Structure formats: C-alpha cells, structure tokens
Amino acid sequence: MFLFRADGNEKVGTGHIMRCLSIADSLKRKGEESVFVSADDKMKTLIEKRGYECIVLHTSFDNMEAELPALKELAAFKSAPVVIVDSYYVTDSYFSLIGESKKTVYIDDRTSDAFETDVLINYNVFADPEKYKNIYKNDNIKEPEFILGPEYAPLRKEFGIKKERGIKEIADNILIMTGGADPTHVAPKLAQKIIDDTDPKALSDIRFHFVIGSMSTDYEKMTELGDRSNGKIEIHRNVTDMKSLMEDCDMAVSAAGSTLYELCACAVPTVTYVLADNQIPAEKAFLERGAMLSAGDAREGDIFYDRLYDRIKNLIGDPSERARLSMSAACITDGKGAERIADKLIEMAG
Fold first, then answer.
1. Which of helix, strand or coil describes residue 117?
2. pLDDT digits over 3-13, tens only?
3. Residue 207 neighbours by CB under 8 Å, 6+ apart
4. pTM value surpassing 0.85
5. Whole domain around residue 37: which residue ranges?
6. CA 175 – CA 32 distance, rounded (Å)
C-alpha cells in the first residue's frame, strides 16, 4: 500500500490532489492499493469517488510539522512502506522525521529547496538537474534520486492515447480553463470582455467553453454570463471526460499549471498565463520551447485582460501559428508519465 499526503482547497487549488490521483490510478492498474491523507475535507468526496480512502487529519495544511503526531498514529501510515508528499508547505524536518521509518517521495515543482527525501519528482519542462545538484550541494544534504522532466508528467491513462489533430482555418471552439479555484476570477472577467465586445464581426460564430473548477466561487456568476452571451459562452462543470473536450476544441486558454501537460498530450494550441509566482518558471519554459503563447500575469489587472483577449482573437484566425503550436506541444509529453512513476514506486516498495 502507498500513502499519498496532499491537500486541495481554495488557496492551494486542486492540482496537488489531481496529479496524485493519476499516480494512484496507475498503481491500482498494477494491483497496488493507495490511501490519501489530507489536512481538511475539501477534496475528500472527490478522492472517494475515484475509489480511494481519504483520511482527514483536521489540521492546518500550511503547518505540516504540527500534524506529525497524528499522522504517525494512523494505521495506514504504519503499514505503508512509501509515503508520497505533494505540498508547498513541507519542511526538511518533516521529511527527516517521516524518513526515520519510511521511504519518502517528494513531488516538487519549485526547484528551490533541498529535502531529505529518497526520491524527488519534478515533471516540469523547467526541471534542471544541475540546479538541483547545486541546491543539495550548497545545503550539504544528500541528493535523492531525481526523476525529472515532462516524460514523467502524471496524467490520467486516457491522455496516453493519441488522436490526430486537424487545424481549421478559423478556430470556432475555444476551451477556457482557469484552474480548480480561480482565485483571481479570470473566468468571469474574460467572459465579460467577450460579452462587451461591440465589434459585430468579432468572434462571430465562435463558442467559448469555460470549465469551472470544483473550488471556484464563480459558478453562479458564470451561469448568468453564459445566459447573457447569446450562445457564445458555454459553461462546463464536473467534466468527466476532459480529454474529449480538449480534443473537440480548436485551441485553449489555461493557467500555467499541470493542465498544460494534458493540453500538450492532446496537441492543443494554447495561450497560457500566470496566476501565482510558482507558475512563472513553467510559463517561461513553455515559451522557450515554442509550445505555448503567453498573456502574462493575471495579477496585472485590466492590461492583462486586454492582452489575453488580443492573443485569443489573433490565434483564432491564424491557422499556421496554431499548427506550429500544436506540433511543439505534442513533443512535450506522451501522456504516460504516471505509469513510469508507478513503476518506480513499486520498485521502491520492494
């Protein structure tokens, strides 16, 4: 059995839980059991619907050391040979204390700190082994085994199945994904910009598919905006087949989080943007690889929304640029990273 320690809520979003679920699904296909442990119950229902036990500690997600006494008393902790931790609030002491009795794995995407863990996974395009080696050398901490790069992007199984993408002259189905929580309310602000466009030829016959995350507080507002959009805006929530929705759309807009790797696996031409500082390295790396366009930082306010809207309109009518982005995106990941990680975890467990 494997124990995943991860959180999902309005502040940290849903990405940590979702990528751990993809790995757990791969382990299940290989005959292995997994248990999830979270500080609060915000993602408990979703985790259980995916078929896994979720133990709630009723602790503070941003003070992980304080949870250690309760964590160590769990029967699931005592029986799991490997603990996989996915949190920005982990500390070196946390890993040191767990590592006294368990093999540990850290899923990292910041490349900023050294931790006493057995394995470190960073599946991002910007994961740099030399940078990690320097961090561990400077902190005088023994290097873990590094598992780096987008070939390890932990996507759901369906994203490993490729479908050829055609490029239309005009992109008339646009996918808008603003994350599980959308704390800066990108979705309603962009939807309002679409509705307010007074150019009668602008976005004619274009449909925008807004995916509203499970932690978003904007669902009612988005439903209202969709009703006012004269058919231009369609609202999606609790999507059960995200891959098909991605494949059915001609281009996408997405925050620079884990969703970008799903879009790459589907070869979707994409405009990305930044919601938080930890997304800046991914945005930069995708730009350098020529796999995405960027609209910059959503925290810039009105100038960001002007830029985003311009990027969308320009890409809608530029099939050659969409073809270039699609080809570059498809080279990022093959969608089989979760299987590779699962194999490594089983090897660790002995």
1. coil
2. 999 999 988 88
3. 172, 173, 174, 231, 232, 233, 234
4. yes
5. 2-158+335-349
6. 35
